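We were asked to recover a plausible sequence for a given structure. The inputs and outputs are reproduced exactly as logged, with field labels preserved.

PROBLEM: sequence recovery
POSITIONS: 498
GIVEN STRUCTURE:
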């Protein structure tokens, strides 16, 4: 089977699965860039840390840490849960540090499941990500951005929903544009936004701890009242906490673009998780210094209530910081996830155009914009929060499967170089935690979880229709070639040079 590629009006043919070279005629050579067309290693240690921290810290810590307090039953137990979830997330991050240094490919969960368990399970993960998890997750973060960026303008009134959705669409479009234009500027922006988040958190932590040292400790009296602790609610508290820490895996999606990944990936992961755990715990301590447990549970936006109590007129700045935090999460998430689609295309599980690079900007342009139409469609037409409920358990299921893959590879491929190796109890504990959270979803919300599971199962027939069966109808082959060729010309992208 052959495929056609058109670049600058020149048609070439090659066997399917091979990467064809750039045209060799004089005109094409004159227009070809001097640099090799590929994704370059531009992610430094600082940028790696900013990708992880900037993606983990979204709107949650500013808006709603009350889920953990509500289900843990006391101030002291809620702080214990925050620390414990940080440690458990560090376990998962260390597992991914080992996977990222022994499998030096981008793509994160998708790549590790592909290496350990084969293409069918990897495709189901890709399918669920593409049709539901990623677009709905991106839309939720973007909605929080839209709401909080407009809040200072409309204060003290509520923000109209139409205005929120328009601001959200502008935010998504801006992030897509930045990621399409330059890897360097995307990572630089991520560093800036990460420092903005840490500044926002320090604006909460410093005054809060100052009040604590002044003796404002009444809200910590009887912090561990066990008569208020509901043991059946603790698993739900851990579920909320693990969700708040989710994002430690995003650097593994861009491993091929990281400078010296054997050193940078484990170091960036460990530094980031320590910083995030300390920030989350101290932020909650600051909240409790100023607000009682009852006041925190009654608040819709904890950081805003905190600022109003302690800072007066300065509280208008908090929504701006929350909006910047959400923008950073969108930027980091899209930067990482686009590489999964890029790798999936390279593995033959998505149309080949998604593994091509812009000829001048050296960005995976098709892989960046693949989510754009679906995200906007969900934003304006779909029930985003239902989709998230359907799919949140699938995220933990596949992360657990990827970590089980680490254990499996230890025994099936012991000769594989492992520059960074974790004790075996760490992946065992973390994978059991993931599967426990999946079981918890089945128990606490069987309807939504069942619908999500059914949506996920559609990936199996999709795999056999689009990937497994090689003898596709001629009209389908011609249409596929036409779409690939047209997109390649419109987007000015070419296959990666080897």
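RECOVERED SEQUENCE:
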């Amino acid at each position: 089977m052959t495929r056609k590629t058109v670049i600058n009006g020149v048609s070439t043919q090659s066997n399917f699965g091979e990467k064809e070279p750039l045209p060799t005629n004089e005109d094409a050579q004159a227009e070809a860039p001097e640099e090799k067309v590929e994704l370059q290693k531009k992610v430094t240690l600082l940028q790696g840390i900013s990708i992880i921290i900037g993606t983990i810290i979204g709107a949650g810590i500013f808006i709603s840490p009350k889920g953990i307090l509500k289900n843990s039953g006391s101030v002291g137990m809620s702080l214990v849960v925050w620390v414990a979830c940080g440690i458990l997330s560090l376990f998962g991050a260390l597992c991914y540090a080992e996977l990222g240094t022994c499998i030096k490919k981008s793509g994160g969960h998708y790549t590790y499941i592909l290496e350990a368990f084969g293409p069918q399970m990897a495709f189901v993960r890709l399918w669920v990500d593409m049709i539901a998890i990623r677009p709905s997750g991106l839309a939720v973060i973007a909605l929080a951005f839209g709401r909080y960026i407009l809040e200072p303008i409309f204060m003290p009134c509520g923000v109209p929903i139409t205005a929120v959705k328009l601001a959200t669409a502008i935010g998504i479009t801006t992030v897509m544009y930045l990621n399409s234009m330059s890897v360097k500027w995307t990572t630089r922006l991520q560093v800036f936004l990460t420092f903005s988040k840490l500044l926002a958190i320090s604006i909460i932590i410093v005054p809060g701890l100052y009040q604590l040292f002044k003796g404002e400790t009444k809200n910590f009296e009887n912090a561990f009242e066990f008569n208020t602790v509901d043991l059946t609610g603790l698993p739900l508290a851990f579920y909320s906490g693990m969700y708040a820490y989710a994002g430690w895996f995003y650097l593994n999606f861009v491993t091929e673009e990281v400078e010296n990944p054997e050193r940078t990936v484990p170091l960036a992961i460990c530094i980031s998780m320590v910083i995030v755990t300390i920030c989350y715990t101290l932020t909650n301590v600051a909240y409790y210094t100023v607000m009682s447990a009852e006041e925190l549970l009654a608040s819709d936006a904890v950081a805003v209530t905190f600022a109003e109590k302690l800072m007066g007129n300065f509280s208008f700045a908090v929504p701006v910081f929350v909006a910047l935090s959400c923008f950073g999460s969108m930027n980091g998430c899209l930067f990482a996830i686009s590489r999964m689609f890029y790798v999936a295309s390279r593995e033959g599980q998505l149309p080949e155009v998604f593994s091509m690079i812009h000829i001048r900007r050296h960005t995976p342009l098709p892989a960046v914009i693949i989510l754009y139409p679906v995200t906007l469609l969900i934003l304006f037409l779909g029930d985003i929060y239902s989709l998230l409920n359907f799919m949140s358990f699938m995220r933990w299921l596949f992360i657990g499967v990827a970590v089980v893959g680490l254990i499996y590879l230890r025994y099936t491929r012991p000769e594989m170089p492992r520059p960074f190796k974790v004790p075996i109890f760490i992946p065992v504990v973390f994978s059991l935690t993931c599967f426990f959270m999946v079981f918890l979803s089945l128990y606490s919300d069987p309807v939504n979880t069942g619908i999500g599971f059914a949506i996920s199962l559609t990936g199996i027939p999709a795999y056999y229709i689009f990937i497994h069966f090689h003898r596709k109808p001629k009209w389908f082959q011609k249409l596929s070639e036409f779409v690939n060729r047209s997109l390649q010309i419109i987007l000015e992208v070419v296959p990666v040079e080897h």
